[in-house]
Amino acid sequence: MPLTTDIQIHAVNVLVIGSGAAGLRAAIAAAAGCEVLIVGKRPRTDAHTVLAAGGINAVLDTSDPADSWQQHFADTYKEGYGLGDPAMIEIMVRKAPDAIRELADWAPP
Ligand SMILES: Cc1cc2nc3c(=O)[nH]c(=O)nc-3n(C[C@H](O)[C@H](O)[C@H](O)COP(=O)(O)OP(=O)(O)OC[C@H]3O[C@@H](n4cnc5c(N)ncnc54)[C@H](O)[C@@H]3O)c2cc1C
C-alpha cells in the first residue's frame, strides 16, 4: 500500500479515536474546557451507531409501574444468550435512565 502524502498536523488537548456514540460521548465530556479532535478509520456513515435501528432501552418509570432495573437486567442478559458480563449489564441498566435523560436534555454549546 502506498504511503499517503496528505498529512495534516493538528495540536489538540484530547484525541478521541472512534466516531461512534462512545467516542462522541467521550468527546462531549472532554470538550468542557478542552480542544478535542475525533478520528475514525471509516466514513462517519459507517459506524455501528449510524447503522443501528435507533432503539434505546431504559427504565424511566413512564409507562409500566412494574418495570425495574432488575427486569431490564434480566431481559438484557436473556437476549444476549447469557453471554453478557452480569456486572457490566448491571452498571448499564442502573445508569441507563440518567443517560437517556441527559441525551434528551443535551443541546449543542
Ligand atoms: C444494524 C445494527 C442495528 C443495531 N440496532 C441497535 C438498537 O436498536 N439498539 C441498540 O442499543 N444498539 C443497536 N445496535 C448496536 C449499537 O449500534 C452499537 O452497540 C453501538 O453503536 C456501538 O457504539 P460504539 O461507539 O461503541 O461503536 P461504533 O458506532 O461502531 O463506532 C466505532 C468507531 O470506531 C472507529 N474505529 C474502529 N477501529 C478504529 C481504528 N483502529 N482506528 C480509528 N478508528 C477506529 C470506527 O470507524 C467507528 O467510527 C445495532 C447495530 C447494528 C450494526
Low-confidence stretches: none
What global shape is seen? elongated
Proportion of residues in extended strands: 5-15%
As a whole number of angstroms, the C-alpha radius of gyration is 18 Å
Quote the distance from N terminus to C terminus. Answer: 41 Å
For the residues shown, what is the average pLDDT?
Answer: 89
The count of β-strands is 2
Q: What is the H/E order? A: EHEHHH
SS-based class: mainly alpha
Number of helices, counting only DSSP H or I runs of 4 residues or more: 4
Bound molecules: flavin-adenine dinucleotide
Q: Largest sheet at a glance?
A: 2 strands, parallel
Give the count of structural domains: 2
Share of helical residues: 40-55%
Strand arrangement within the widest β-sheet reads: 1-2
GO molecular function, one term: oxidoreductase activity
Protein name: FAD-binding protein
Organism: Nonomuraea deserti
Keywords: Flavoprotein, Oxidoreductase
